[in-house]
Amino acid sequence: MNKRQFLAGAAVLGASAAPAFGNQRVHDEASAASPVILTISGAIKRHNRGALDPAFDQLLAKHQVKFSQAYNVDLPLLASMPAVTIQPTTEYDARPHRLSGPLLTTLLEHVGAPGAGGTQILLHAVDGYAVMTTLDKVRAYRFVVATHMDGKPLPLGGMGPLWAAYDADHIPELSAKPLKERFELSPWGLYHVQVIAG
Ligand SMILES: Nc1nc2c(c(=O)[nH]1)N[C@H]1C(S)=C(S)[C@@H](COP(=O)(O)O)O[C@H]1N2
Ligand SMILES: [Mo]
Q1: 127 CB under 6 A from ligand 1?
Q2: Which domain of life is it from (predicted)?
Q3: Ligand 2 mean position to 185 CA, how many Å?
Q4: In terms of residue numbers, what domain contains 157?
């Protein structure tokens, strides 16, 4: 894919800032034992943190993310959700690898995202890579928020800690394409998901 999408993604983020929630009070979850590894913002009903803090939400702020409330996700939360395992041929070494973690739809339901198929889902990675897709596609591709590859936790600096992935070998419209063209919608280093009502 054209990497100018990096900038396009940033523009989308800026343009679709969450509406203000007035004085509604939101309490951060106290003294969580595990670091937040994913922030979900936008059109969701559940929140466990307040507005983006430009002082200390440095990476989000650099990527022009804006929200007045959001949902913090840590590894124990992901681990508490039913895990699925897929075994796609990855484009990096052309071999099948076992990727496991909860379905993205499970996570979206947890945070009270809309169920309409046209709901837009922006997947945003630590390197600035961002792709927009729809809930219809997230369901059809059975997107997994992978935490593990071949039984090992995905490292930050590699593909992790989270990799949005799908079993391209078993999705006809993707398996028909060359390996290098199957994974545009598959950001590694996923750290922010924005939900935009369709
Ligand atoms: N975090 C992140 N994920 C990404 C990308 C990227 O640049 N950063 N590129 C996407 C695209 S367009 C493809 S085709 C595959 C492989 O991209 P790469 O060869 O640039 O790694 O990963 C996808 N996931
Ligand atoms: Mo690509």
Answers
A1: yes
A2: Bacteria
A3: 9
A4: 3-196
- pLDDT tens string, the chain, 198 residues long: the values are 444 455 444 445 544 444 434 333 344 444 568 999 999 999 999 999 999 999 999 999 999 999 999 999 999 999 999 999 999 999 999 999 999 999 999 999 999 999 999 999 999 999 999 999 999 999 999 999 999 999 999 999 999 999 999 999 999 999 999 999 999 999 999 999 999 999
Residue 191 and residue 128 in contact, taking contact as beta carbons nearer than 8 Å: no
DSSP state of 63: T
Q: Choose the residue to mutate in 186, 190, 192, 193 for probing ligand 1, maximizing ligand atoms within 8 Å of C-beta.
A: 186
Residues 6+ apart with CB under 8 A from 85: 98, 99, 100
CATH number where 88 lies? 3.90.420
| C-alpha of residue 123 to centroid of ligand 2, in Å | 15
Q: Model's pTM, two decimal places?
A: 0.88
Distance CA(124)–CA(164), nearest Å, equals 10
Residue nearest to atom 13 of ligand 1 (CA): 184
Give the helix/strand (H/E) hosting 86: strand 84-86
- The verdict on the CB of residue 166 being under 6 Å from ligand 1 is no
Q: How many domains does the chain have?
A: 1
